[in-house]
Amino acid sequence: MSSGRTVLSNNVAKDRIVSKFQQAYHADATPYQKMNFHPKVKAASSENRTGTVGLKISKAVIVGDVSVGKTCFVNRFCHDLFDRDYKATIGVDFEVEKFSILSTNFTLQIWDTAGQERFKCIAASYYRGANVVIVAFDLSDEESLNNVEKWMVDASENANDPVKFLVGNKRDLLSEAAYEDIESRAVEKANKLGAEFWAVSAKNGLNVREFFFRAVCLTYDSLLLNELESTKTVSSKQIGSNLISIQKENTDLYEAKNKQKSKCCS
Ligand SMILES: Nc1nc2c(ncn2[C@@H]2O[C@H](COP(=O)(O)OP(=O)(O)OP(=O)(O)O)[C@@H](O)[C@H]2O)c(=O)[nH]1
């Protein structure tokens, strides 16, 4: 976390408090149509029934061609800095950001990977288990948009049912007309990839904070909803040569008053 930020008692900076559901950048370029936190997520958050979601560290990976501005994008959000000199990322780098979402602590690890081919193997080993996949391209470089498909396939392969984004950076370099031209192709590409499109500028900060807030809102909502919905856990025990499944009601996150006795079945 950058110095100079007001940090609250729960170790979360004041500018990392998320109390409203961040909307998509472009209504026609998102597979995520929800406009608000799920009512069950809101209720569980206000009643502190957030299970492991507030304890775990969620993971975001950012991938894309060389020099599209991945490091600058992360640095703009995490440190409010912009470096105009290019320094290639060697392998991977990461930042940790703490949020408070609907008063629940939520930690996001942001993995910034190298775009250079020679570091691809190292970077790819960090894609595993990602909850958020961000494929970045340079809005002023059509070639980098042409390559987003392979980045999305590679990064999503071992991810954990991720929320997917296509982020066009360097918006500051384009006129309105030039932007509209590339936007239509980017939206088409995002829809094809099942990803949500954002146009940002790491240089002037345009949409950077909004983007990360959107990413954590969607991730928190989906992780907590999954946890709330998995009310039934099935564990298996090997007894002799028989596999016995024990189904038990795990109602901790729901109304405790509805708790029932564990049931056994074969
Ligand atoms: N005009 C403008 N330049 C940018 C922006 N973001 C990054 N740059 C410049 O683009 C160059 C590359 O930025 P990086 O963030 O290092 O790119 P990267 O994608 O992390 O590169 P690799 O680590 O090699 O994969 C630098 O010279 C930055 O100053 C932006 O939003 N606008």
Task: Summarize the structure in words.
The protein has 266 residues and is of the alpha/beta class. Helix content is 29%, strand content 25%. The chain contains seven helices and ten strands. The protein has a seven-stranded mixed β-sheet, sandwiched between helices. The longest helix is centred in the C-terminal third of the chain and has 22 residues, at 208-229. The radius of gyration is 21 Å and the shape is globular. The chain binds guanosine-5'-triphosphate. Guanosine-5'-triphosphate is lined by residues 66-72, 83-89, 114-116, 169-170, 172-173, 201-203.
Strand percent estimate: 15-25%
Number of strands: 10
Given helix and strand content, the structural type is: alpha/beta
Quaternary organisation of the protein chains = single chain
From the 3D structure, determine the CATH topology: Rossmann fold
What general outline do the C-alpha atoms trace?
Answer: globular
How many domains make up the coordinates?
Answer: 1
- CATH class descriptor: Alpha Beta
**Which ligands occur here?**
guanosine-5'-triphosphate
Poorly predicted runs are 232-251, 255-266
Number of alpha- plus pi-helical segments: 7
Query: How confident overall, as mean pLDDT?
Result: 87
Topology pattern, helix = H, strand = E = EHEHEEHEHHEHEHEEE
CATH-level-4 superfamily name: P-loop containing nucleotide triphosphate hydrolases
Helix percentage: 25-40%
Radius of gyration from the alpha-carbon trace, in angstroms: 21 Å
Distance between the termini: 51 Å
Sheet with most strands: 7 strands, mixed
